[in-house]
Design goal:
By secondary structure, the protein is mostly beta strands. It contains 2 helices and 9 strands.
Length: 133
């Protein structure tokens, strides 16, 4: 099991009993919680019958190249169905290149999940064998 790596997984987002399958990048090098692509968020709001909400305070985000990206003003809260778990995730709406959703380090930390790179799977800390001692 390694931290600090990234993989794309096929997951489902849902709201109001409706679902959309999506490729989600889990990247523990991304210093944030969760991000959703602007175009995909528009599709999700239409299809899932939900609404984007305005942030109380807009925020800037720094890209992988350390440059300030666009100002983020909105977010959407969706349920992520992942390994038979349902997790409500607030996602900042931002233009992403090549990804529908990115789940970052803060999400992985809060949820308690590690990436098993060898087997391309997630290890939930609650399921992780405890040290005998």
């Amino acid at each position: 099991m390694l931290k600090g790596d990234s993989f794309t997984f096929l997951y489902t987002i849902s709201s109001n009993r409706l679902r959309i399958k999506t490729c989600t990048l889990i990247n523990t090098k991304a210093n944030g919680y969760a991000f959703i692509n602007t175009k995909f968020a528009a599709l999700a709001t239409r299809f899932l019958n939900t609404k984007a909400q305005q942030l109380f305070t807009p925020c800037n985000i720094q890209g992988f190249n350390s440059k300030i990206a666009q100002l983020i003003t909105d977010y959407i809260e969706l349920t992520l169905l992942i390994n038979r778990r349902q997790i409500k995730v607030p996602m900042l709406i931002i233009q992403l290149r090549g990804q529908d959703i990115i789940l970052g380090r803060k999400w992985a930390t809060e949820i308690g999940v590690l990436i098993n790179c060898k087997n391309r799977q997630l290890i939930w800390l609650e399921d992780y064998p405890k040290d005998k001692g």
